[in-house]
Amino acid sequence: MDSVGVAAAAPDAGPGPAWQSKCPWGAPSTTSISCSLADVMSEQLAKELQLEEENAAFPEVVAAAEGPFITGENTDTSSDLMLAQMLQMEFDREYDAQLRREEKKINGDSKVSISFENYRKVHPYDSDSSEDEVDWQDTRHDPYRADKPTTTPRRGFIGKGKDITTKHDEVVCGRKNTARMENFAPEFQVGDGIGMDLKLSNQVFNALKQHAYSEERRSARLHEKKEHSTAEKAVDPKTRLLLYKMVNSGMLETITGCISTGKESVVFHAYGGNSATEDKVIPPECAIKVFKTTLNEFKNRDKYIKDDYRFKDRFSKLNPRKIIRMWAEKEMHNLTRMQNAGIPCPQVVILKKHVLVMSFIGQDQVPAPKLKDVTLSSEDMKKAYYQILNMMQQLYRECSLVHADLSEYNMLWHDGKVWLIDVSQSVEPTHPHGLEFLFRDCRNVSQFFQKGGVAEALNERELFNAVSGLNITADNEVDFQAEIEALEKMNEDHVQNHGKKLSTFSSDGDPPIYDE
């Protein structure tokens, strides 16, 4: 039997084992559909076959593409404008989807979330929006904001019988205190106590309230100190503006940096400019003394200025801020007096509010050393002593001034001679405490030069008589100071009884001094 006959007889065989139902040499049961050459070359058939392959390979993409947006059944795709709008809408959808993914990535599980809703490209005809996505900006209820506790009625209680709740209930008061924390300053971090149903007792709430109030006042003080004060090696914005104006006007060429700091001022070094005035020649190097505008250092220093006849009338009429400007003005006028008398001191260039520009005592940005820091020979030490004695006499008799803070810290050694600085606290001998300040200066000078090995140095009482011209004969220091106080009292009574109106800085004549 041939193979063809076996294949034909196999379907007619009766029931038998499963392996006998199919013959490996049998013909296939499905027959291919024959088609003509015209059908194979048809473009419609090719598109259908391509669409079937795309549906089998990318079912989701095809499902999204089957909508009315992509297909051209109900849209006129022959218009370029319509094609541009369709492409723009598709780009906007992808952009919005990217923003939603960014929101989800950034927010995570945080209670405080951010939203890019304002940056989305939402079109009015775009109906492809997620129903489960909620725009919290369009809702009146914030899911992350807990409901505020309900207020108790006017009668003061809620409920009846055993279920009555008064306004003094611990839970109600605790929730109210938690809600009141929202009234604290924004800088005071209170956390999310409402969301956690936190209940604060009155004691804890009052402590937090007091602490928040203290922190608010402290931050205000720090802000005021930063805006209105001059710190060490730094200046506030107003002072910086004054310095900028000096540089821009050509008065100063450049400001190099800070060279000294003190209790009441900061001194900067600067190079002088070329804009010289008719009566003032700007030196090549200048020292800028910026008085600190904080009042902490001036609380105990008002005694140097309030009893000075030159400022007595103005002192009571000014606020504390302007008193500091008066302090700078006082140093300027004292330096002018000393310069007219020929005493070695810085030359005043200009005064702008609390900024005083003077000539620089030193060379090449290096300030002259203080007398306490320099090592002098015995001859130079003796020379410096007699020079200071002469300057103290000139200061008292010709300038009618008492330094009031004279020591080795306020005397510089430059070019083989002593220079006096820091005369902002200098007063006139008619000051109620002028003679006391002079005696203190004499004590500082005498002790320094006696320790320095100057045998000719007078003691403080002899130096006081030599400078002031008074002849106070007292055996001990206590009696000596008692006589000084008596002279100050008599001098003050003399000025008050005569009621003489002394002129201000326009006249540098000698004020009346009591002399035996």
TrEMBL record:
InterPro entries: Kinase-like_dom_sf, RIO-type_Ser/Thr_kinase, RIO_dom, RIO_kinase, RIO_kinase_CS, Ser/Thr_kinase_Rio3. SMART domains: RIO. Keywords: Antiviral defense, ATP-binding, Cytoplasm, Immunity, Innate immunity, Kinase, Magnesium, Metal-binding, Nucleotide-binding, Phosphoprotein, Ribosome biogenesis, Serine/threonine-protein kinase, Transferase. Residues 137-148 have a biased composition (Basic and acidic residues). Residues 1-18 have a biased composition (Low complexity). The keyword Oxidoreductase does not apply. One of its GO terms (cellular component) is cytoplasm. It is found in: Cytoplasm. It catalyses: L-threonyl-[protein] + ATP = O-phospho-L-threonyl-[protein] + ADP + H(+); L-seryl-[protein] + ATP = O-phospho-L-seryl-[protein] + ADP + H(+). Residues 1-21, 123-161, 497-516 are annotated as: Disordered. It is an enzyme of class 2 (transferase). One of its GO terms (molecular function) is metal ion binding. Its EC number is 2.7.11.1. One of its GO terms (biological process) is defense response to virus. Residues 224-469 form the RIO kinase domain. Interacts with CASP10. Interacts with IRF3; RIOK3 probably mediates the interaction of TBK1 with IRF3. Associated with 40S pre-ribosomal particles. Belongs to the protein kinase superfamily. RIO-type Ser/Thr kinase family. This is Serine/threonine-protein kinase RIO3. It comes from Pomatorhinus ruficollis (streak-breasted scimitar babbler). The gene is Riok3.
